[in-house]
Specification:
alpha/beta; 9-stranded mixed sheet; 8 helices; elongated
Length: 259
């Protein structure tokens, strides 16, 4: 069984507030790591904004198969250099799962190429997450829909590119709908945006939410690929010598394999 190396990144700012700390005493990253840590094929580590290089050193990124990202208050505090390194790693094959307000994070915006904004409000509303692609790997083991009794509300228009696959759509009791499970291919990497996860609700302790994240990790995990070659490249055959002295008709026949 292959081990999937997962790094859970979090700003770890909201949880310094005692009110939020009661919900996530080990931080949102700690809750996600604890829940996903029960998966036998996952190797989990965490990183936070206040660590050197935000915990995302070259060594960490180069040994991460899937990066999970939660951010909200401090998008601007993430260095452009680290954000670009994350983008480059995704293009090279690393999976990226972006949660909740992370849609405005620098790496996600860089990868999407749009402003990635939406409507929102905090009003303790019901969120019903509909599975609209039940055959997708991220939806494996889920019912037709799941309900979160209280969550922050997001609403369309969500300014993102059209997803390659749209797995979930959310409906809120205030009337909004939202594309809440969006899959993208970027270079050799995969990106999944998942909407729920406001810091004031214990969403990341739920078994169904954990199942979605675990499925997403396995979906986004890099597959073995033939490394592409870029730039100047020597010819495999010396075509010029092969056709030297032949007429155009003879060259055409030789190219088509005719005698």
């Amino acid at each position: 069984m292959r081990t999937i190396r997962v790094t859970v990144w979090n700003e770890y700012i909201h949880e310094k507030d005692p009110r939020i700390a009661k919900i996530y005493p080990d931080g949102i990253h700690g809750a996600i790591a604890s829940m996903l840590g029960r998966e036998e094929d996952f190797e989990i580590r965490t990183a936070t904004l206040d660590m050197p290089e935000h915990g995302l050193t070259d060594d960490v990124l180069n040994t991460t198969d899937v990066l999970i990202w939660w951010g909200h208050l401090a998008h601007a505090k993430v260095s452009d250099e680290v954000a670009e390194k994350v983008r480059q790693r995704v293009l090279a094959g690393m999976g990226l799962i972006v949660l909740h307000s992370g849609h405005l994070s620098k790496p996600f915006v860089k990868l999407m190429g749009t402003i990635c904004r939406s409507k929102w409000r905090e009003n303790d509303e019901l969120e019903r997450i509909w599975v609209i692609e039940p055959g997708h790997p991220i939806a494996e083991g889920l019912p037709e829909y799941i309900e979160l009794p209280k969550e922050e509300t997001y609403g369309e228009r969500f300014d993102i590119p059209k997803p390659d696959d749209l797995v979930f759509i959310s409906w809120f009791s205030g009337g909004e709908v939202f594309r809440s499970g969006c899959c993208y291919n970027r270079g050799n990497g995969k990106v999944f945006y998942f909407r729920p996860g406001h810091e004031e609700y214990p969403t990341f302790y739920r078994e169904d939410i954990t199942r979605i994240l675990a499925n997403a990790v396995r979906w986004a995990c890099p597959r073995m690929i033939t490394p592409p070659t870029f730039g100047h490249y020597e010819a495999i055959e010396h075509v010029k010598d092969k056709f030297e002295g032949r007429s155009m008709e003879e060259r055409t026949h030789a190219t088509l394999g005719k005698t």
